[in-house]
Amino acid sequence: MPLSSEIAAARLSVLDRIAVAARQAGRDPDDVTLVAVSKQQPDERIDAMLASGQRVFGENRVQEAEARWASRRSGVELRLIGPLQTNKVREAVALFDVIETIDREKLARAVAAELARTGRTPRLYVQVNIGEEPQKAGVAPSDADAFIDLCRGLGLLIEGLMCIPPDGAPAAPFFARLAAIAERNGLRKLSMGMSADYEIAVSQGATSVRVGSALFGGRMAR
Ligand SMILES: *Cc1c(COP(=O)(O)O)cnc(C)c1O
Question: Whose alpha carbon is nearest atom 4 of ligand 1?
């Protein structure tokens, strides 16, 4: 199969599985956004994904995203789903429509200052370290309410929550925990679910799923 048909078929298959999972959960499939995670993918696969009609993409590194999207930016919604260093806030705010990884006070303050300076209004998510894993980014679940309040106090409009559950454990309880934190803080958007578990995430209320390898195939080494 030519690459363009292969990519288009993979996308339709993922969209179909999202729709089935949504309907089974009594949800409208249109309430779930597919974010195609394009990090470390070759240009020809990105271009094939664009040709298939996909318009929402996720990247986890600011510089890599700048290089990849400089010539492809128009009509595309770009989401930052990887850790953000405060020294990259200027570039990130300039490039991304959505920043999903607000996870500490210093970063929240830097983003607030940059929004004030530029007048830009990217949509913002707080990342929660839902499995309380030392190696993962995100605010601890027990600190989430206070951190969301702090962000709001800085004038940041937080739209939702994002998480990456632990490897090798059933994901559903972690997704449910993230949904509960969102609910009690009046947040309507949940970014959760990757190639291995996006249907489970949809059943637990995900409003966006971040899918890479199931759409594009394996990634290149950096
Ligand atoms: C790479 C990445 C994904 C996509 O992972 P796949 O397993 O390839 O679907 C999703 N979310 C984040 C935060 C990532 O870094």
Answer: 212
Ligand 1 mutation pick, 35, 37, 49, 213, max ligand atoms within 8 A of CB: 37
For residue 9, what is the DSSP state?
A: H
Q: Tens digit of pLDDT for each residue in 71-116?
A: 999 999 999 999 999 999 999 999 999 999 999 999 999 999 999 9
- The ligand 1 site (C-beta within 6 Å) comprises 37, 39, 60, 81-82, 164, 194-196, 210-214
The type of residue at 2 is: P
| C-alpha–C-alpha distance, residues 41 and 47, integer Å | 10
Report how far ligand 1's centroid is from the alpha carbon of 116 (Å): 31
Distance 209 CA to ligand 1 centre (A): 9
Residue 181 Cα distances to 80, 156, 189, angstroms: 21, 18, 11
Q: Which amino acid is at 203?
A: S
Q: What is the pTM of this model?
A: 0.98
pLDDT attached to residue 221: 86
Nearest to 124 by CA among 86, 161, 83, 179: 161
